[in-house]
Amino acid sequence: MTKFVIRRFIGLFPTLFVIITLSFFIVRAAPGGPFDREKRLPPEIMRNIEKKYNLDEPLLMQYGRYILDILRGDLGPSFSYPDHDVNYFIFNSLPKSLILGSIALGIAVIVGVGVGMISSVRQNTWVDYTAMSFAVMGITIPLFVVGPVLMYFLALRLNWLPTSGWVTGQHGWVTIIMPVVTLSLPYFAYNARLSRASILEVLRSDYVRTARAKGLREIVIMFKHVLKGALLPVVSYLGPAFAGIITGSVVVERIFRIPGLGQFFVQAAFNRDYTLLMGTVIVYSVILIIMNFIVDIVYGFLDPRISYS
Amino acid sequence: MDAATIEKSKEKNDIYVSELNQPIKGVSLWKDAWRRLKKNKMAMFGLVVVIVYAILSITAPILPIYSYKYQVLEHQYLPPSLNKNAGQLLLEREEMLLLAMANKMGRSELNQQERDKLVRLKEQVAMETREIDGEVVKVHERRYILGTDSLGRDLLARIIYGGQVSIAIGIIGTITSVFIGIVIGALAGYLGGRIDYIITRIIDVMYGMPYMMLVIILMALFGRNILNLFFALAIVSWLTVARVVRGQIISLKNSEFVEAARSIGASTGRIVFRHLVPNTLGVIVVFSTLRIPSFIMLESFLSFLGLGVQAPFASWGSLVSDGVEGMNLYPWRLFFPAIAMVVFLFAMNFLGDGLRDALDPQSKNKL
Hints:
The structure holds two protein chains of two kinds. By secondary structure, chain A is mostly helical. Chain A contains eleven helices and no strands.
């Protein structure tokens, strides 16, 4: 087991390396540079700027320098905000995105599995039908429609919630309700459908029949026997869900004006701010890779059929 | 039992026997699927909606709607209205505005000067003509069923033309990604060995990447035109098809009919693309139907960030994105495109689910 974990962990680095390399060269291959303005800068000034950021060196040397910097934990200076370096922006914006994303994911999993459980126990009743139609809606309606519509009704028409802001602002934690609901809705819906289907399948299995025959109470059967097996698809869906929540947070941060990592990512892409763009991509990739790694290991714990050899 | 009844039952028997004597008609996979699909009400509803959308998109140029890019700047933000034309709406708005200003100043009625202004506006509305597409028309007699946008363009036309773009992107994107996926997946699955290893490794690494980020980077850096959009979406979305096709082909490649084809000397390409790929077609059709809405969502997602379709063209995503600005005052700009888009997405999903159940009855209840 330990050996498996270590081997998987070491396997993360090539993936990360590929991502860094690929994005570095894609970003550099693009036409236009970070210092292109409507009015062209005089060539001497351009040369000086390029010299300052080592942009005059051959590309491979810049790449080598960049990798060395990353190994030292330095993501470089930002091109479009000259007073700050990339680490500063990430340090400030990442916590917001992490809070948003982790609450959304937690709700998506816990509430999703809960609803799936209730639906499967009350299969083909109105509870089941309501929950499942809601789930279909959650999967189908894109979150950039859900977000503005929620905002229109809850904030602008009913005045129940503030339209935007962040937890440290004057409105406090209520500001996070709409972003979290918007972001978690599709994954909540998917988890509900997934867990309903798999619980229904497990409920028909032989070992559950055995447990019933032993005279165990339904609630014990559900939580001790059914849930563990039925959670497997939910756990394996966590990987794609992480990726989805990361991308979704880019849009949600924009709708609700949250100064998180996603905002900087999009801004950097527009500004061709190479270093900030690379920095955000690397942070996102690291989060995604680590999450996938954890999912793999949790999956192994839950499913004894998987062998680690 | 009298003779007549016996005779009758004999006749009945004859009918049954003659029915049994008919040669058995083979039911092909597709016919069988179509029969099952017809029984699925939601899927049929989806199919009808999709067909209606398709007809609207294809016939858009000959439909009696306005141009999606013609601007009447005076007609900014006109609310949706079924029975009033633009001129009446303009007059109403002006009157409301003047009244509100008069109220602010403590008068309950308009003064002479303001009434003159209204009369002048009325004349202008009644008389003014403009040349649109070589035709001189009374511009203020235009009717905007779904209202107008920030530049005085007809929202209905923009939604229909936006739908055209969105659906086209969904279909073309799906076809491209499915094509790449089939070729790569089929080769990996059939050839096996080292090639298979390399391809699966590449797919694994790409799966681990936040690939929407890659698309955003590509769109932001390489220019925002539709061609780049297709390219960016296609290169990140063939992965799943490739995986599915590879799995299918591995499970099929040792079957007897492939053996038979090989024994009569069929080439690899022929075996893969004549014998193996057609057998995975059911899965691919289902996958493609479910893929179209997700492509539409991806494109809208990019448009929402300002990276998708650029003005004067529209897509549902860019329309929703435009509608978010000022949705407090002009909510129709948000809601109509959003409804148009969501209805289509629902229909596509119902149809896809129905097709999956129809083509593969065992998959019922699966996600």
